[in-house]
């Protein structure tokens, strides 16, 4: 039987970081992963360049049943701290926009940094290694000197006084995502917040979407909103039309807040006053409405937009001079207040993250220890979900750091 102070399950962002810090604090640490390669999500993140943090990180950038939970960890390990770590290894990076920091070279720089930190902490790494069973040995019942855990792994039985679950969420199963962390929570009666795909493209009824499918590949800046007046959420980001629906940063952001059965509101021309511009053009222009509209939005969108008129009782496929004020107002309204009802999402196969997860009610916000003594949860497996833009990795680092210092 092998003995460690801590066994970290999951060698992804949170697990590797936590293991490195804990090792450097003097604990004997094993980090194991069922995949052959560590940190596959870091490798594919940010288009291969890993958006590893966001300099503007604040609790408001996270969703959770308990929005206050993430505060303590985020304040104790900030984006500046992670940047300092990268500077120690001379990893070059740059800010793309909106505070998002990316590697100049590749996401491998982040993985190598985490592995080097593990090395410094003399962390033992086993992968691939799967866990079949976890047993809690309470000192009172088992005659051992302190509470501990026995873990049946395919490399034999391991004993440790603490277990850190860092096995992530359900998104992208083809690169190793599993429900392992949620099953462990269930085994120890730790409550869960229902999971759902987040930062995910949205889909629409095929017939309703048919007129817009031809816009696939088109990207433009929009305002996108969802929710009732009281809890309205708005993002100002790019939108991407796809064959099946909508994607792009704006849609991924709103998807985390979107509730099935509720509509989205979109302004496809947020930087211009479409009604005023069309009304002005009507006075002097001989062009078709679509051609005038094409000076405000991409021409493919303009053509698709005027073609919808017939179904809505308007003739928008005509010279702008001949259009009534009412028709032009209706056209402008549809463009700037387009309401549409998604039927679903592309699911965990395409989601960047999983919202929901281990209920923070059962965790200490200082250490991430659960109400089951010696059992900790960090990273995406916890019901803390960041916006798009480097926030999810910052949560992985911050929760891993808090945990390592609490072990
Ligand atoms: P993570 O998923 O990183 O690690 C979990 C580990 O546990 C994996 O190595 C897995 O193999 C292992 N595991 C799972 N089940 C197991 C089992 N049963 N036994 C043993 N091991 C098991 N975020 C961000 O901030 N910036 C970005 O640029 C991106 N980009 C991005 C792109 C894409 C395509 C995706 C899918 C996601 C992102 N993200 C992101 C999100 C980010 O990748 C994610 O939030 C973090 O990786 C979560 O870190 P964790 O360590 O919690 O889980």
UniProtKB/TrEMBL annotation:
The protein's name in its UniProt record: NAD(P)/FAD-dependent oxidoreductase
InterPro entries the UniProt entry points to: BaiN-like, BaiN-like_dom_sf, FAD/NAD-bd_sf, RsdA/BaiN/AoA(So)-like_dom, RsdA/BaiN/AoA(So)_Rossmann
Domain RsdA/BaiN/AoA(So)-like insert intervals: 196-353
Lineage start: Bacteria, Pseudomonadati, Pseudomonadota, Betaproteobacteria, Burkholderiales
Keywords: FAD, Flavoprotein
PANTHER family: OS12G0638800 PROTEIN
Cofactors named for this entry: FAD
NCBIfam families: aminoacetone oxidase family FAD-binding enzyme
Positions of the RsdA/BaiN/AoA(So)-like Rossmann fold-like domain: 5-405
């Amino acid at each position: 039987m092998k003995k460690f102070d801590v066994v970290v399950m999951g060698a992804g962002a949170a697990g590797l970081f936590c293991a490195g810090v804990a090792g450097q604090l003097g604990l004997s640490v094993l980090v194991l992963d069922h995949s052959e390669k560590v940190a596959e999500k870091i490798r594919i993140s940010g288009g291969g360049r890993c958006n590893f943090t966001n300099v503007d990180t604040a609790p408001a950038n996270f969703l959770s049943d308990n929005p206050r939970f993430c505060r303590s960890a985020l304040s104790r390990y900030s984006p500046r701290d992670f940047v300092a770590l990268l500077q120690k290894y001379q990893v070059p990076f740059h800010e793309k926009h909106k505070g998002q920091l990316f590697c100049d070279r590749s996401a491998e720089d982040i993985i190598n940094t985490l592995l080097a930190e593990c090395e410094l902490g003399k962390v033992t790494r086993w992968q691939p290694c799967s866990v079949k069973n976890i047993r809690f040995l309470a000192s009172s019942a088992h005659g051992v000197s302190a509470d501990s855990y026995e873990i049946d792994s395919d490399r034999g039985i391991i004993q440790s006084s603490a277990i850190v679950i860092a096995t992530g969420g359900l998104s992208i199963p083809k690169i190793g995502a599993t429900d392992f962390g949620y099953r462990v929570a269930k085994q120890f009666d730790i409550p869960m917040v229902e999971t759902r795909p987040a930062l995910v493209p949205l889909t629409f009824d095929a017939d309703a979407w048919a007129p817009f499918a031809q816009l696939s590949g088109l990207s433009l800046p929009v305002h996108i909103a969802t929710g009732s007046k009281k809890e309205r959420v708005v993002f100002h980001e790019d939108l991407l039309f796809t064959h099946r629906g909508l994607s792009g940063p704006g849609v991924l952001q709103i998807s985390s807040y979107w509730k099935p059965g509720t509509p989205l509101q979109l302004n496809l021309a947020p930087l211009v006053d479409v009604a005023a511009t069309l009304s002005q053009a009507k006075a002097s222009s001989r062009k078709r409405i679509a051609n005038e509209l094409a000076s405000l939005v991409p021409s493919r969108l303009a053509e698709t937009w005027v073609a919808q008129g017939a179904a809505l009782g308007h003739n928008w496929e005509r010279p702008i001079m001949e259009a009534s004020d009412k028709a032009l107002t209706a056209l402008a309204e549809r463009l700037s207040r387009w309401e549409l009802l998604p039927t679903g999402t592309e699911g965990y196969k395409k989601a960047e993250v999983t919202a929901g997860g281990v209920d923070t009610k059962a965790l200490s916000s200082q250490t991430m220890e659960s109400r089951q003594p010696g059992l900790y949860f960090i990273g995406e497996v916890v019901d803390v979900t960041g916006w798009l833009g480097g926030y999810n990795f910052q949560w992985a680092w911050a929760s891993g750091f808090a945990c390592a210092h609490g072990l």
